[in-house]
Amino acid sequence: MNSRRRVRNAFEAARLPRRNCATGSGSLRFRGASSPARQAFTIFEILIVLGVLVVVLSLSWPVLDKFQSQYRLRQGGQLVQTRLSAARVHSIDSGFVYQFRYEPGGQRFLVLPFDQQALLAQPVAGKRGPTKIAGKLPSAKAKFNSSGGGQQVPGEWLSGIAAAGEFSGASWSPPILFYPDGTATPATIMIGDHKSQVVTISVRPLTGAVTVSKIERGTLP
Prior knowledge:
The chain contains three helices and nine strands, in the order H-H-E-E-H-E-E-E-E-E-E-E.
């Protein structure tokens, strides 16, 4: 009888909760108990975060838009510089005088031989014809200065240019000429955008070198 009582007392003692020895406190910890699960974000908290993001974006957007417009304007200046330099190289290589024309107040430009014979020459088998280049400024919000326009280009000059119809009927600037000896007619071209930012491309007469200025504040003439 005593042995059975001792076994029962030991079993009941084992079922009692143990004292938290690690902390030394008298609180009881039951086996299997777990901490409460973390609650999800509320709709109110999400709306606060979205509101902060909208405010930050609205404050930073003018700065981002300015950087983007400056990048596109700089791209346009570098593209025109490349095409002007290409006209000089084509003149030296071919021995023909080359011309660069742009659309005042517009976005289009042309690189063509100035020599009438080279302009109307047709390519023959095994030999390339004279180089002709047509293009546009990369930004729809940028345009050339509007001064010095009013000249028409005959349609036959554009033969051999892809999508020549897009460049016919336009009013063009006087030609900027590049000669086979590397010289050129002095010229200054300005490109501006809707934010009153301007970049200037200059052609030096003695060397035919083409330079692009930094972006400046101003309006197109």
